[in-house]
Please model this.
Amino acid sequence: MKVSVVRNVLEANERLAQELKEVFAQRGILALNLMSSPGAGKTSLLERTLADLRDEFKMAVIEGDLQTDNDARRVAATGAQAVQINTEGGCHLNASMILEALKQIDMEGLDILFIENVGNLVCPAEFDVGEDYKVTLLSVTEGDDKPEKYPLMFNLSAASVLNKTDLLPYVDFSMESAMKHMRALNKDIEIFPTSCRTREGLDAWYGWLRGKRAEKKK
Model:
């Protein structure tokens, strides 16, 4: 019975995710699902990205957290549209939540929608939220074996941001090992070593965003 219930939940989510994909395709919106463990730096990356690219793109963010609107307020301070979803204990966002949140977003002329998922390296990977691409963040404070321990998320991601590289001198983290694990799971994954504090690697990340946005407009 449990297997059947899980299958039904996933199938229902897939139907709604397909609706979202159609909406995004019709409007030419690039939708990105940002995933990571708590504290990896998703919101910091968004703050930098939204501030640096605001003259190029109209962007919005759907924030997912168990409680509080702290991250949504940080994002909104950049001038971007921000909608908060509190899951009240749920470990991931789903397509139904995104459909509801979209009612609060002005999608006219929107170029990029960032969906900042709940901090978790397991559940978010299993639920499609209508995104064009999944992007996983991994901070150097977490350990270079995380891709090996949590393979699905990295296997499904088009890109991975290796964040907080400014802390490399102070932690036991092998960039080579982390990237090797990622590419063993997904040979096509794009990897961006990045520090939001020093701005290292942000230009490469922005270049990837520009490329994917251009592809979506075709």
Notes: The chain has one domain: 2-217. The longest strand covers residues 59-65. The helical segments are 2-27, 42-52, 70-76, 95-102, 146-149, 151-156, 175-185, 202-217.
